[in-house]
Amino acid sequence: MKNITQSSNLEKIIKVAKGEIPADLVIKNAKVINVLSEEIHEADVAIVGDIIAGVAKDYKGLEEIDAKGMYLSPSFIDGHVHLESSMLMPSEFAKMVVPSGTTTVIADPHEISNVMGLQGISFMREATKNLPLDVYMMLPSCVPATSLETSGVDLNSYDLALLIDAPWVLGIAEMMNFPGVVNQDASVLSKIKLGLEKDKRIDGHAPHLSGKDLCAYIAAGVRSDHECTTKEEAIEKLRLGMYLMIREATGARDLEALIPVLKTVNTRKCMFVTDDRHPKHLAKHISRMVKKAVKNGIDPIKAIQMASLNTAEYFNLQNLGAIAPGYKADIAIFENLENFEPHMVFKDGKKIAQNGKMLIDTNAFKAPTLRGSVNIKYLYKEDLQIKVPEGKSKVKTINVIPKQLITKQTIELPKIENGYAIADTQNDLLKIAVIERHKATGNIGLGFVKGFGLKSGAIASTVAHDSHNMIVIGTNDDDIYYAAVELVKSQGGKIIVENGKTLAHLKLPIAGLMSDKPNEEVQQKIAELDLAAKKIGCKIDEPFMSMAFLSLSVIPELKITDKGLIDVNKFEVTDLFV
After folding, report:
1. What is the pLDDT of residues 461-504, one digit of tens each?
2. Which pLDDT belongs to residue 7?
């Protein structure tokens, strides 16, 4: 975004920098963490409007804050995040992350785009543009992720071209379809070309891609990756010119595994990202990653570089990420370089958080309205039945692996009643249904899953990657049907039911992905869901997260979408019965 404030106040900024007139604000007696020279030095910081005018001794200000020897750091930037994954409105997200020192995020509205397309991106822009948090966006590259599911929309390069010139758009988001890049798929390459022609970034998503195929992927213009989980993979990508986005999400935490890399390579091409985080993991945001890195032996200045300057430079945000003349006055003040819990946070030269609390009312930020997004064809209980074909009785079954997104396939023998296959709780064989919820096609994928351990009832959600159709797992058709109907009534959410009664229900009426309630209420509902899950026998710690990825048809081995059971290795719909 162009710095209008700096341009209009240019003469004043120069006079303040020279010490001829007082600054609007001076932070005095500070230890400045200089990510440009990689040192810590004592100075006053003079601010005019939202711009740092000078970093030197003995500045005078209309307002002065004595730092008393505390550390001044550039505030933090999250290089890749899906705001929708927090299930919170952006204003509530800001209330959670800003007090911990994050004042800028690079968002990929991939989830809401799969539901509502350009309207979803526009909604996120309107909901974020006036927050005390700078939200830049990358345009989703893979909507839908595959043709093996029904999404709300299909975004092509012509659609993305309508937004690519916006100053708040920094490029094309994670290019998950790396086979399409390597094999020169025309529609995939057209999105990359759109970003390259506008001199904007192309983010990557290429787990385990290596060798010459990786070279081809990078040569196409992809410049970052947040899927590295091993030292070897990270070093190869760094050697080939990629920026390494080190991820600490709710479900995937890679920092500890990559610490050996950060101790041996040039960290200037590394940055911190959170990707997908639930509300309970937001309060200590990028600051927790900085603390964890330092605790594991990384130099504090380099850790802060990765949380600020490196990210700003990668995304060509030229006046962000450092404490120096001409840079934005986005600053965090730390009492020490161990806890990284900000004593104060400044955004655009104004103190907006202190001691972990926001100083402004984020409730004043109202999001625009959005149409309902749970549109299913009228559902009958009979639609959930699985008729056993003549001469066949065994089924391909999805096996959940704890704390992993990959699944395994086994062949199981379900219970059979009146010619229909049903769940068998004794064998932990549960029925799973994916119900198309965007276009009322009537598509329902039916199958079986092992690993959840339910003894009764059902769990259901409209958060199901990547197209976010309704997904239900249950022990009987009555509860599966009841759960689905309740989610239609609430226009999305997460629910646990038993014997035709609701045990816990988090309503997510915004695209079936986000709540319109305060963070505290959302966290309370999540806690109720966790308790209810245990009550009906669930043995998985994060059942809704595990369930959400069972429909992601790009991660092996066996998945399920509204179009049926998916053999990911063969990338095709496969028969349920053997």
Report:
1. 999 998 999 999 999 999 999 999 999 999 999 999 999 999 99
2. 67
CA distance 116 to 68: 50
Same domain? 297 vs 398: no
Please say whether the beta carbons of 554 and 227 come within 8 A. no
DSSP H/E element including 214: helix 211-219
**CA pair distance 150, 160, nearest whole angstrom:** 20
Q: Which amino acid is at 373?
A: S
Instruction: Provide the residue range defining the domain that includes 191.
Output: 75-318
473/464 Cα distance (integer angstroms): 12
Do 563 and 150 meet the contact criterion of CB atoms below 8 Å apart? yes
Distance CA(31)–CA(577), nearest Å, equals 67
Residue 113 within a domain: yes
pLDDT of residue 3: 59
Domain final residue, candidates 264, 298, 318: 318
Query: 107 CB contacts (<8 Å, ≥6 apart)?
Result: 81, 82, 83, 124, 128, 135, 136, 137, 138
pTM: 0.93
Judge whether 32 lies within some domain: no
Q: What is the CA radius of gyration of the chain?
A: 25
Residue 62 lies in a domain: no
